[in-house]
Design brief:
single chain, alpha+beta, SH3 type barrels, Alpha-Beta Plaits, 3 domains, 5-stranded antiparallel beta sheet, 3-stranded antiparallel beta sheet, 8 helices, about 20% strand, elongated
Length: about 280
């Protein structure tokens, strides 16, 4: 292939890029414009992710902000970059935003019904990032799931359970459902374990054994001190409750409850204390 043939082949390809695909109002969309849109869109997505990582892992770290606050600010900055970048890309391609009015109106009804949950989760994600009822690192209970918040994104929140399983929960769950945040106040949490014992049980001995169990378990805090409650007196049973304080960041609630139940059962069996 000589130089003239190569130039002719290149000219044909350039003419192909000018082939009109469709129109948006007075703006014609060519194959070349579509290729540029895909390339610029890819670069924009990469830039948005890079901005988020740079803000969360480098810039905002020096401000000594909490991880949840850093990721929330970084995520909002990413959405801002994506929004502004999309407008600039459309204008660079010669597409005026007014030309998209007819398209938006035509698909608006379908988007409203088909993407209702997506939009709801997106708005819920923004509310979570701004109001911060939960943040990265909090131990939460929602929709029968208990775990540590690992990531809060636009549409869903990643919660890692005690089994090291990541569960993706839609953001609207944190807005519509009752959410238990065990680390909201960054303070100890109280756990209650009850036991129904035979009516002839020695109350003083039970209180002594329960207090020793709470004192010996490493996950139970000394301050506030654990205490034993005598909840009910009956002909068939006596109801006791052991209330202890613990730090959710150090031990999971179900793990501590299991250790308490195991220790109580072993201690009562050793001292011949019968359950009701």
């Amino acid at each position: 292939m000589d130089m003239s043939d190569a130039l002719g082949w290149l000219q044909e390809r350039l003419l192909l890029l000018n082939w009109e695909l469709f129109r948006l109002g007075e703006t014609e969309i060519t194959l070349g414009a579509l290729v540029r849109l895909l390339l610029l869109g890819t670069v924009l997505l990469w830039a948005g992710s890079a901005v988020r990582r740079w803000l969360a892992d480098r810039l905002l770290v020096h401000l000594h902000l909490e991880p949840g606050t850093r990721y929330a600010l970084a995520s909002m900055a990413r959405y801002l970059v994506l929004g502004l970048g999309a407008v600039l890309i459309l204008q660079n391609l010669g597409i005026q935003l007014g030309a998209l009015g007819m398209v938006a109106g035509a698909v608006g009804v379908g988007v409203g019904f088909g993407l209702q949950n997506i939009v709801s989760n997106f708005i819920s994600g923004l509310i979570i990032m701004l109001e911060r009822p939960i943040k990265v690192g909090d131990r939460v209970e929602v929709a029968s799931v208990e775990g540590v918040v690992h990531e809060i994104s636009a549409r869903r929140t990643t919660v890692v359970t005690s089994d090291n399983v990541a569960i993706l929960i839609p953001n609207q769950r944190f807005i519509l459902d009752n959410v238990v945040n065990l680390a909201y106040l960054e303070a100890p949490v109280r756990l209650r374990v009850s036991a129904s014992l035979a009516p002839e049980t020695d109350v003083a001995e039970v209180e002594r054994l329960l207090a020793r169990i709470a004192r010996d378990l490493p996950g139970v805090m000394d301050t506030p001190a654990p205490h034993v409650l005598w909840l009910a007196i009956g002909a068939a049973a006596r109801q006791f409750e052991l209330a202890v304080w613990y730090e959710p960041a150090r031990i999971a609630r179900d793990q501590l409850k299991s250790e308490l139940n195991r220790a109580i059962a072993g201690s009562f069996a050793a001292h011949d204390i019968r359950f009701a």
